[in-house]
Design brief:
The complex is a heterodimer. Chain A is mostly helical. Chain A has one domain. Helix content of chain A is 69%, strand content 0%. Chain A is built from 7 helices and no strands. By secondary structure, chain B is mostly helical. Chain B has a domain of 31 residues. The longest helix of chain B has 29 residues. The model of chain B has no long low-confidence stretch (mean pLDDT 87). Classes of the chains: A mainly alpha, B mainly alpha. Chains A and B meet through helix 6 and helix 7 of A and helix 3 of B.
């Protein structure tokens, strides 16, 4: 039975890494592709949001002010104050900026006009993780001195001397080398794999619905397309969670750099 | 007759093996959340907050597996 829709039968092109290579928007600037456009627009939106929130100061808050205050107090109380302790105000702008930037750039993945999470291009999480790495190491070095910070990071108190050759390289790799790698790869892999999942369901459902021969395949295509909506819902959850996790781990790393000796 | 050849992605097999650990880990996290809630229901909020943080950190390993399976798993094929 031939398909009732008169489209030429196509070969199914499975989504993969190539689906994430996007062309530049203007030919003269090859570095300005959709990822960069989304990031620039997100920065403008975030700056506008927080500047407006900083200005309205009515004692009885309106709805807009309430939303902004909720977002601010969420980062301040749950993330900064609980993790860093009494010195958290110096790091609060960094945490709010990180949380806002990552959340907005993740939500571009489900926003109708963009439908691409910016962190799916691996350079963006690398840059953010490099920034966090420089900051939490710099904070520790500023507080403890260079060798004092290395001793603080690699040598927990109370370790006997004969275990030092085992503990010091292990802790060095785990605390100073591996932390930015897992931080960046966690964000990148969640956005990449989530977007790939959405692509599989939508492209596969569309192919089965429109370019296949039998009715069973078309029903499967419809089910696939409907299920992709559930995957979108999962993606909203995962994106918000990943933005929260990145910020929480940044606060945790800063807090462990600043920790006093027992 | 050509010899039977197995084609596919070793990366996906690697992901399948690599998902064993995070699967067990996430199960342990939420098992302890359920047990702790059974012992002391009023501590549920604090436990769930820590549970989601632990979930994301553990799940990261499995997600890194599936992402790198797509990026590196097709090397050596046409």
């Amino acid at each position: 039975m031939s398909s009732p829709v008169s489209l030429l039968p196509l070969e199914f092109e499975a989504p993969g890494v190539h689906s994430f290579d996007l062309p530049p928007i203007f030919e003269s600037a090859p570095w300005f592709d959709k990822y960069m456009l989304q990031a620039v627009v997100s920065v403008i939106l975030i700056m506008a949001f927080w500047l407006i929130m900083a200005r309205k100061n009515a004692l009885v808050p309106s709805k807009g002010q309430y939303i902004g205050e909720t977002a601010y107090f969420f980062v301040r109380n749950t993330i900064a104050r609980d993790m860093i302790g009494h010195d958290f105000r110096r790091y609060l702008p960094l945490l709010i900026a990180l949380f806002s930037f990552i959340l907005v750039n993740n939500i571009w993945g489900v926003f109708p006009f963009t439908l691409l999470p910016t962190a799916a291009h691996v350079g963006w999480p690398y840059g953010l993780a490099l920034l966090v790495w420089v900051i939490f190491n710099g904070v520790g070095i500023a507080k403890h001195g260079f060798f004092g910070y290395l001793k603080h990071a690699t040598l927990p108190s109370g370790v006997p001397v004969f275990m030092w050759p085992l503990i010091i390289p292990l802790e060095f790799v785990s605390n100073i080398l591996v932390r930015p790698m897992t931080l960046s790869l966690r964000l990148f892999a969640n956005m990449f794999a989530g977007h790939l999942l959405v692509l599989v369901f939508v492209l596969g459902g569309e192919y089965l619905l429109l370019h296949s021969e039998s009715i069973i395949n078309m029903v499967a295509g419809v089910v696939g397309l409907i299920f992709s909506m559930a995957i979108f819902g999962l993606e909203i959850f995962v994106q918000s969670l990943q933005a929260f996790i990145f910020t929480v781990l940044t606060a945790q790393y800063i807090s462990s750099s600043l920790a006093e000796e027992h | 007759m050509t010899a039977m050849e197995i084609v596919g992605s070793l990366g996906i097999v690697g992901y399948g093996l690599g998902a064993i650990g995070p699967g067990i880990g996430v199960g342990l996290i939420f098992a302890s959340v359920i047990q702790g809630t059974a012992r002391q229901p009023e501590a549920r909020g604090a436990m769930m907050g820590t549970a989601w943080i632990g979930f994301a950190v553990t799940e990261a390993l499995a997600i890194i597996g599936i992402a790198l399976a797509f990026v590196f798993g097709f090397t050596g094929q046409a």
